[in-house]
Amino acid sequence: MPAVLAVGVMANVMAEGALAASFAVSGTSFQVSSGKLTSQGLASYVQTDRSVDGKGHPVALLGIGDARLTDICQSAEVRTPVGTVVFKLTAGGDAGEVTASNLVIDGEDLVGDARFGTAEIGRDASTLDQVPGVHGEKGKFGLQAGDIEVAGVRSHAWSATGGNFRLKGMRVDVSIGGKKCF
């Protein structure tokens, strides 16, 4: 329980802009899913996340402007002294929409049915401007889009950060042998 509270406090501090969202990843990837994601901007480029042990994890950094999700599920398998548990966070659905501003997901993949209002594929990552603060290194491959909609979202990710999260109907469950998002 203290770890969950610490994560909540850190998320709140990041949302208020008092703490940078750059950190070493845990070495445990997690699942994220949603029925539908919409946003007024997407920027993406390839980078490498590093675990505390120095191991690199290639990811597509996905910057999403003002995200709106019908629902959200995030789950991770975590080894503990009593066995492997599933940490699962859910929100939205009947409780209402989930929202976040400047959502950044470092993902291994993203699956779903997508619609982009406008798209620029192959743009230099250093010139991306659809999502404030999300741009890569000069000379690197990038892509961006104006308004987006993705149905049936499924992703394996190493990290996610954002501001002003609104998680209506949030529920956290930690259980041995628990069910993951997908």
Number of helices: 1
Molecular shape? globular
Task: Provide the residue-averaged pLDDT.
Answer: 88
% residues in beta strands: over 45%
Distance between the termini: 25 Å
- State the low-pLDDT regions, or none: 1-21
Sheet with the most strands? 10 strands, antiparallel
- The helix/strand series, from N terminus to C terminus, equals HEEEEEEEEEE
Indicate the structural class: mainly beta
Extended strand count: 10
- Helical coverage, percent range: under 10%
Rg computed from alpha carbons, rounded to a whole number of angstroms: 16 Å
Could you explain how this protein is built, in words?
There is one protein chain. Helices cover 8% and strands 59% of the residues. The chain is mainly beta. A hairpin with a 5-residue loop joins β2 and β3 (56-69). The two termini are 25 Å apart.
How are the secondary structure elements laid out?
Elements: H1 2-15, E1 30-39, E2 42-50, E3 56-69, E4 71-80, E5 83-92, E6 98-116, E7 119-124, E8 141-145, E9 148-166, E10 171-176
Q: Which descriptors apply to this entry?
A:
182 residues; ten-stranded antiparallel sheet; mainly beta; disordered N terminus; 59% strand; globular; single chain
What's the quick description here?
The protein is mainly β. The protein has 1 helix and 10 strands.
